[in-house]
Amino acid sequence: MIAFSSVSPTDLRCAIDRLKGNNIGHRPLTNYFFQPVDKATNLRMLESERTLCFSHDEWDFTRVYIVTFDVENLGELLQAVSWPPLVVTDWVCQAAPDIEICLMNLGFHLHATYDRIVCTNIRSDQPNTYIDFASPRDREHIHALLFRAFDKYADHIMLIEELDELITERLVILNRDPRGTIDGLVVFPLKGQSCHFNFLYNRGGSVGLSRLLGNFYGVLTERGVKAGFGWVRRTRPLVLRLHESFGWKKDGLVDRIYLRS
Question: What is the pTM of this model?
Answer without folding.
Answer: 0.91
